[in-house]
Write a sequence for this structure.
């Protein structure tokens, strides 16, 4: 496995983990920089 393939595998696994852990989130990006940006901008809705 080359470096590019390993990076793609890590991105894919992180995307799958995010979908598994947070199924209520929509349109979770697949690549690492966009995933981090998405998570930093996420604000949960608090229900009283």
């Amino acid at each position: 496995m080359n470096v590019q393939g390993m990076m793609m595998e890590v991105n894919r696994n992180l995307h799958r983990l995010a979908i598994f852990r947070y199924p209520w989130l929509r349109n979770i990006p697949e690549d690492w920089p966009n995933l981090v940006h998405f998570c930093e901008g996420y604000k949960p809705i608090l229900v009283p």
The first helix runs from residue 3 to 21. The mean pLDDT is 87. The chain has one domain: 3-41. The radius of gyration is 13 Å.
